[in-house]
Amino acid sequence: MDGPLTGTQARHTAARFLAEHCPWADKDAVLLVVSELVANAARHTGALARLRLRADPVGLAVSVEDDDPKLPEPRAPDLDGGGGFGWHVVERLAERLAVRPAPGGKCIEAAWAAPPALTHAVPD
């Protein structure tokens, strides 16, 4: 999905993708990561986010790109409603996490490995 999107659109898109391509994935964890990455792009960069979902026999990758080159900065959680939890949640739920420059901004990719039974399956 390219172009601006809301957290709700991102969750719906990711939920459909998971149902079709990655029924093995922890849906709650992936959807929370998608929500946090899209919300953080909107809140902290004011930039438009683009969501990309990719599945292959090795696993699942979720990428969110925005038009701000500034890298995420973890901050101490504020229990009085000031936020600071999102990036920590993403770090905890993603098996692999990468932040890299993208044209005009950055790309944050969270990834999860497919279960061993799927990665070692031999076609009939």
Series of H and E elements: HHEEHEEH
User: Describe the biggest sheet?
Assistant: 4 strands, antiparallel
As a percent range, the share of helical residues equals: 25-40%
Number of strands: 4
Q: Looking across the biggest beta sheet, what order are the strands in? A: 1-2-4-3
Radius of gyration: 15 Å
Tertiary shape: globular
Poorly predicted regions: none
| First-residue to last-residue Cα separation | 33 Å
Number of helices: 4
Mean pLDDT: 86
Notes on the structure:
With 124 residues, the protein is α+β, with helices and mostly antiparallel strands. It contains 4 helices and 4 strands. It has a 4-stranded antiparallel β-sheet, with helices on one face. A hairpin with a 2-residue loop joins strand 3 and strand 4. Helix 1 packs antiparallel against helix 2 and helix 2 packs antiparallel against helix 3. The longest helix has 19 residues. It is globular and about 40 Å long. The protein starts with 6 loop residues before the first helix and ends in a 5-residue tail after the last helix. The model has no long low-confidence stretch (mean pLDDT 86).
For the structure shown, list the relevant keywords.
4-stranded antiparallel β-sheet, alpha+beta, 124 residues, globular
List the helices and strands and how they pair.
Layout: H1 7-21, H2 27-45, E1 49-56, E2 59-66, H3 86-93, E3 96-102, E4 105-113, H4 116-119
Antiparallel strand pairs: 1-2, 2-4, 3-4
Quick structural overview:
Helix content is 37%, strand content 26%.
